[in-house]
Write a structure and sequence with these properties.
The structure holds 2 protein chains of 2 kinds. Helix content of chain A is 74%, strand content 0%. Chain A is built from 13 helices and no strands. Chain A is globular, with a radius of gyration of 19 Å. Classes of the chains: A mainly alpha, B mainly alpha.
């Protein structure tokens, strides 16, 4: 295999993995606080279209990403009000959030079909491409790929090294005890769900602003569910989320390089791999 | 000050009132959405909810679109009663269409009375086989059926796309990704001249009656309900959890498979790259709005089918995006979940309490109400 092909494969693996990293890390924090939000797919879709619309309207990609985060948070807020304040069933509400997100994003997105914009460019860090071995690969990374590493470190540090992180875990594992020492269980859960929404929204926006970059109805194609599976696959540990996401990213992009790699299997079957891998991981 | 307080026992009135409240709230939101989009809301309502039913043809379409929703919704409702969350009905529907369609294509040109029953049975079997995967993984490895059934939806879409693009593509179809049209003997007979409603609607009504009988009169149905509502009691009574999971998934998979084959042996008449218009997902809403009761599912399917028709009409007449259907569907489910709160709680006027009562909500798991 040539070096260029190898770099192309690794670079697209990183790009495919990044939305999963964001969404899964967000969901990890949510679940650590004791809430299961099955609505990732819906939040990602809304993040994708709101982010795309934001970027097209303002002409600024960064504002687009912020819009995507806001869209995801707005969806998460609906979920939080229903499940935390109104005590609705988490499974049913999460499903409702996904269905609602599908409908809402398609509804908003009608005006943006066929609109294109310049996607996120690789971050030009001076001298980075001169690093031996890794240099050419790192030169293809954009701001949000680097951002996902920072987020990983931040989530790890927050959960294991800070008092609020400890509090969040206490709320998830022993809500009665956390309540007894005077912490607001509901408040912590609200924040955790909102953070999950923000990260899903950002992951969705990354799909629409960096990977494709355009809006297609239902463009997340199950990535929200894959991210959800990743959290379980990673046994709620941030580091393993990254590992899992890159594994899935690799499987996802296999289809695009199958010809170059000499794999003679219909594209549809290669596209099935991430979904099948998710099932196998979950077992 | 108003406060929520738990009712001593769940309110039956609210059980039935909450879907109506949800529907009304959905209409109110619709009013707001139409206004925002610059449509006169009352006229938009007329186009959306009444105009589709003003012609005989429209009523035929209404029943036609309700059919897959009834079929999928009934099966899902039976599973949800046992708290088995099969959300992959759309995949089971697709596989049902593939299996039934495969039989129809295999016997292309055979003009025999047994062909249609065989096609339908193949569809049911296909749906069941697809649902057997999550059932097996759940009972063997305790894998979440939610995730597995949903992942298999995407796999089924890809399988169908592969088949209509490759081996099953119509050789005389000008390279369109679709199969040959089925022979008439493999097609469901139409019920009325000039309408597209077919015999599947009768099958769906039969299934409603069967499901009612199963849930209300049969021990197996009772067992499933007990396992869902009171798992500890069910375990104490020695009801097998595995049996329930298998039953729930096979029933919901089989009926979704029937819905799929009824689409291809009905209005479509061939396999196409996408045979479902999200019926399997809309059926989740149908099951909840129908209170997991067969008759409720029938009514909810008719409402949901009207949303589909209304969305199409709104697109044609008002130039509104048809995605508005999905928006209404999602809103309906949200409002239902929120309104269901009042089954178990009621609003009560209280004096501001001197000492804050411990928040029970923080420690309990999500409410059992669905």
């Amino acid at each position: 295999m040539s070096t260029e092909l190898m770099i192309a494969i690794l670079a697209s693996t990183a790009a495919a993995a990044t939305p999963l990293v964001y969404a899964a890390l967000g969901e990890l924090v949510t679940e650590r606080a004791g809430v299961l939000n099955l609505g990732l797919e819906g939040m990602m879709l809304v993040g994708a279209i709101v982010g795309f619309a934001g970027a097209v309207t303002t002409g600024n990609l960064m504002l687009g990403f912020i819009a995507g985060i806001t869209g995801g948070m707005a969806m998460a807020l609906i979920f939080a009000v229903l499940t935390i304040s109104l005590q609705t069933n988490q499974v049913a509400t999460g499903l409702a959030l996904t269905l609602f997100g599908l409908g809402l994003s398609a509804f908003i997105g009608r005006a943006y079909i066929g609109v294109s914009l310049d996607g996120l460019k690789p971050l030009a860090i001076p001298l980075v491409s001169d690093i031996p071995l890794l240099g050419p690969l790192l030169a293809t990374f954009d701001l949000l790929i680097y951002g996902s590493f920072v987020l990983l470190a931040a989530v790890y540090w927050f959960l294991t090294r800070t008092r609020p992180g400890l509090m969040l875990r206490a709320v998830g594992e022993a809500p009665a005890a956390a309540h007894a020492i005077g912490r607001s269980v509901l408040g912590v859960r609200y924040l955790a769900v909102l953070f999950g929404g923000a990260m899903s929204g950002l992951g969705g926006a990354y799909l629409a602003l960096a990977i494709t970059p355009m809006w297609v109805e239902g463009m997340t194609a199950g990535r929200g569910w894959i991210a959800l599976a990743l959290v379980v696959f990673a046994t709620w540990k941030p580091m393993r989320v990254l590992l899992g996401a890159y594994l899935f990213g690799g499987v996802t992009i296999l289809q695009f390089h199958s010809q170059a790699l000499g794999i003679k299997v219909p594209a549809e079957f290669l596209s099935m791999l991430p979904y099948l891998a998710t099932i196998i991981c979950w077992c | 000050m108003l406060r929520l307080e738990p009712r001593p026992e769940p309110s039956r009135q609210m059980m039935f009132a909450s879907p109506l409240m949800a529907a009304v709230l959905m209409l109110v939101s619709g009013y707001v959405i139409f206004s925002i989009m610059g449509q006169p809301p009352l006229y938009a309502f007329y186009i959306f909810f009444i105009d589709p039913l003003t012609s005989l043809y429209g009523i035929g379409e209404w029943l036609l679109k309700a059919t897959p929703l009834i079929l999928c919704g009934i099966g899902l409702a039976i599973g949800f009663r046992a708290r088995v969350w099969n959300i992959g009905a759309d995949g089971q529907l697709t596989i049902g269409a593939i299996a039934g369609g495969g039989v129809a294509l295999y016997f292309q040109g055979v003009n025999a009375f047994w062909l249609l029953p065989l096609v339908l049975l193949a569809g049911v079997a296909g749906g069941m086989a697809w649902a057997a995967v999550p059932a097996f993984l759940r009972t063997r490895f305790n894998t979440s059926e939610i995730l597995v059934s949903l992942m298999l939806v995407y796999v089924s879409y890809l399988l169908l796309r592969y088949l209509v693009n490759g081996p099953w593509r119509d050789p005389f179809g000008f390279n369109f990704p679709q199969s040959a049209m089925f022979h008439e003997a493999a097609m469901l007979p139409l019920l009325f001249d000039g309408l597209r409603t077919n015999a599947a609607f009768i099958l769906a009504l039969l299934l409603v009656v069967l499901a009612w009988f199963f849930c209300q009169k049969m021990t197996a149905g009772f067992r499933m309900q007990v396992s869902g509502e009171a798992p500890a009691a069910a375990a104490y009574a020695g009801f097998s959890d595995k049996r329930n999971v298998w039953l729930a998934l096979l029933i919901s998979g089989g009926s979704a498979g029937l819905a799929g084959v009824a689409e291809v042996a009905g209005p479509l008449g061939q396999l196409q790259p996408a045979v479902s218009s999200g019926y399997g997902f809309a059926a989740i809403i149908v099951a909840f709005v129908g209170r997991l009761h067969p008759l409720g599912v029938l009514l909810a399917s008719l409402l949901m089918s009207l949303l589909y028709l209304g969305g199409e009409a709104a697109q044609l007449e008002l130039g509104l995006p048809s995605a508005i259907t999905g928006l209404f569907q999602g809103l309906l489910l949200f409002y239902l979940l929120a309104a269901d709160l009042f089954i178990h709680f009621r609003l009560k006027k209280v004096q501001p309490p001197a000492a804050e009562a411990p928040a029970t909500s923080s420690t309990t798991s999500p409410s059992e109400a669905v």
